[in-house]
Design a protein that fits this description.
The complex is a heterodimer of chains A (257) and B (260).
Chain A: H1 4-32, H2 39-49, H3 54-78, H4 85-123, H5 126-132, H6 137-174, H7 180-189, H8 193-219, H9 224-255
Helix pairs in contact in A: 1-6, 2-6, 3-4, 3-6, 4-6, 4-7, 4-8, 4-9, 6-7, 6-8, 8-9
Chain B: E1 8-19, E2 22-33, E3 37-41, H1 48-56, E4 63-68, E5 71-72, H2 78-85, E6 88-91, H3 103-107, H4 109-115, H5 119-132, H6 149-160, E7 167-171, H7 179-196, E8 199-204, H8 207-213, E9 216-221, E10 224-230, H9 240-247
Classes of the chains: A mainly alpha (257), B alpha/beta (260).
Chain lengths: 257, 260
């Protein structure tokens, strides 16, 4: 039965890692709802995570909106259904691509930075030092980042939605010869509040996942520069995969099978 | 620094800690009297840092007890435990200064977090502590990365004593410093501890430093205290482990574990 042993070892290793992550998340969240909170740190992290992600998220959104309009035109023109383009652009942006692409971009930009910063603090004993100075590392380092991620990512996505729709509008009106007023009317026609709301719910979950993975991998990094590098990589990869998996689950929960 | 210790400030009994299959502490017994300066010597990897981290509450011991002022802190959690940890100031080997904060904010950190002291007052205390370790007020606004290694060590020392703790831990205080700077740090430690009337536990493998700052010396080897006595008796301990260590001989009962 020896050939079963490696399978079991991998499976047990997976369960241990999952358990550690869930325990870490539970402790972190419990600290989010218990005072004291470091308001100034939360504000600083909101600027770091939210405000400084605006350019990269905005650029991603505008090009995605533009390419969406172009690609759906090549498809729908054959069916004489050009009027559907505005709807396709706005629904795809708000429901799917806005939150997912913003989440992935923030995972790359912020997740790695969080993991590297907290990881360096871990290997240089700064996290131990915090504890000896009567400051809970969870409260001081992790809670501000988690709150900032959950609050700012929906705002980023709302802005990305608007910029993406604008990108589709620009391409449709200027290179596909749509009537501007007509395009805007079509954009509004089939858009429902639920479409935007699901996108924002997704964004909040993604914000939590990105900051959580950054904090988790940074907090548990060990072994000097190499360990910190590995933590940054793992934070981005695991956050990206979790974002795509969570996206599917949330979509199923809202819109059924 | 030769006060006799009547009551014990810290008392470790049968402290054990393992990481996986590797036993690091195998029943450590150590007593530190009030106002006493104890230096724990021992080779690299003998478990000195792990012992301090257990007392600080950064690691949980597997067995044994840690008494601070008579109370067993291994039985305490949360606030009650923190009340005891707040009595301890710690000088980390690497300094462990927060590089996102200025020098004075580092020194004032515990004043702000423990006693919520107003900013201006905390800054004044921080400047006084910096002066105590021989640093002028102009370094206060710098960031720790702009300082030399020796200056960082002094800032870390100022931070460790900022709240006038009853107990101070020094983890390899002279590691990585040149002999002159090492002596300055040793003198600062002796001054600070005497000034505070605090109990001190230092871990080091620098014998010059140990002789200078210790009232008592204990030797940790393979997770146990193998010798414990007044600093003056270290030369005539009659203990083979201690003799090999203080004379730095490659031959003796302490084999160099290449693999652990």
């Amino acid at each position: 039965m020896n050939f079963l042993a490696p399978i079991g070892r991998v499976f047990i290793g997976f369960l241990v890692a999952t358990g550690r992550l869930v325990a870490f998340a539970a402790v972190s969240v419990s600290h989010c709802v218990r005072p004291p909170l470091y308001g100034r740190s939360i504000g600083r992290q909101m600027i770091q995570i939210g405000y400084f992600s605006l350019p990269v998220v905005g650029l991603t959104a505008i090009f995605t909106g533009m390419v969406l309009a172009l690609q759906s035109y090549t498809g729908f023109a054959r069916l004489n259904a050009e009027s559907a383009i505005a709807t396709v652009v706005v629904l795809t942006m708000t429901r799917e691509l806005g939150p997912v692409l913003a989440g992935l971009m923030v995972a790359g930009r912020v997740g790695a930075a969080i993991a590297a910063e907290i990881g360096t603090m871990r290997v240089t004993e700064q996290i131990d030092a915090l504890a000896t100075l009567s400051t809970d590392p969870y409260k001081y380092l992790i809670v501000p980042r988690l709150i900032a991620g959950v609050v700012t990512l929906p705002i980023l996505v709302l802005i990305a939605d608007i910029i993406g729709v604008f990108g589709g509008y620009v391409v449709s009106v200027h290179s596909l010869d749509f009537n501007a007023a007509n395009y805007l009317k079509l954009t509004w026609q089939f858009l429902e509040p639920l479409d935007v709301i699901t996108g924002l719910v997704k964004a909040a979950v993604f914000g939590f996942l990105v900051t959580l993975m950054g904090c988790y991998h940074g907090f548990h990094s060990r072994g000097g520069a190499q360990g910190v590098g590995a933590a940054a990589t793992n934070a981005v990869v695991s956050a990206s995969v979790l974002i795509l998996a969570a996206n599917y689950m949330i979509t199923t929960a809202f819109f059924g099978t | 620094m030769t006060r006799t210790a009547s009551e014990s400030k810290i008392e470790l009994r049968g402290l054990k800690k393992s990481f996986g299959a590797k036993t690091v502490l195998d029943g450590v017994d150590l007593r530190v009297g009030a106002g006493e300066s104890v230096v724990v010597i021992g080779g690299s990897g003998s478990g000195k840092s792990v012992m301090l981290k257990c007392v600080l509450g950064l690691l949980w011991p597997d067995a044994g007890s840690i008494h601070i002022d008579g109370a067993d802190v291994t039985a305490l959690t949360g606030r009650a435990r923190q009340a005891h940890t707040e009595k301890i100031g710690m000088l980390f080997q690497s300094g462990a200064l927060f590089d996102s904060l200025k020098v004075w904010e580092n020194v004032a950190f515990a004043l702000r977090s423990q006693s919520a002291m107003p900013k201006r007052q905390a800054r004044d205390v921080a400047l006084a502590k910096l002066a105590q370790v021989g640093l002028a007020a102009d370094v206060a606004e710098l960031s720790p990365s702009e300082l030399s290694g020796g200056m960082q060590k002094r800032v870390a020392l100022a931070r460790a004593i900022a709240t006038d703790p009853e107990i101070v831990f020094f983890d390899e205080p002279t590691a990585g410093l040149d002999p002159i700077l090492g002596d300055i740090i040793n003198r600062l430690i002796v001054d600070c501890v005497r000034h505070l009337g605090a109990s001190a536990v230092s871990i080091t493998h620098d014998m010059t430093s140990a002789r200078k700052i210790a009232d008592r010396i204990a030797m940790l080897h393979e997770g146990r205290i193998v010798w414990d006595g007044p600093a003056a008796d270290i030369e005539s301990s009659g203990n083979a482990f201690v003799d090999q260590f203080i004379h730095g001989r490659a031959e003796g009962p302490i084999g160099m574990a290449v693999r652990r």
